[in-house]
Amino acid sequence: MSEFSQVTVVREANIFFDGGVTSRTLIFPDGRKKTLGIMQPGEYEFTTHSAELMEILAGDLDVQLPGADDWQTFAAGESFEVAAHARFGLRVRAVTDYCCSFL
User: Any idea where the domains of the chain sit in the sequence?
Assistant: First the structure.
């Protein structure tokens, strides 16, 4: 899906890691939430509150999923899921555009 219609956009940005990762929250009429964001090159670690589906729209990054020793590479058109209350690592190699759906 290349566009979302009939959504509410939260005006205030989500800013993490001194601006290395930023996003905007979309709220759908049925209460579902997604964020659309940009990650600058760097290394980041996140903890989820709810399960997430991360869709990579553009860019290139390595992800260390919860409980994994190895890193997996994801690029445009690929996605990965992270369980609720889990920690995961990111090594962003190129500016990365993403869509995060809260499951």
Answer: 8-102
C-alpha to C-alpha distance for 82 and 54, rounded to whole angstroms: 8
Q: In what helix (H) or strand (E) does residue 89 lie, and over which residues does it extend?
A: strand 87-102
Give the CA distances from residue 83 to residues 19, 40, 46, 98, in Å, rounded to whole numbers and listed in that order.
Answer: 25, 24, 12, 18
Q: How far apart are CA 61 and CA 25, in angstroms?
A: 22
pTM of the model: 0.93
Structure confidence by residue, pLDDT tens digits, 76-90: 999 999 999 999 999
The single-letter code of the amino acid at 16 is: F
Which parts of the chain register pLDDT below 70?
1
Homologous superfamily in CATH for domain 8-102: Jelly Rolls (2.60.120.10)
CA dist., res. 19 & res. 99, Å (int) = 17
Cα 36 to Cα 97: distance, rounded to the nearest angstrom: 8
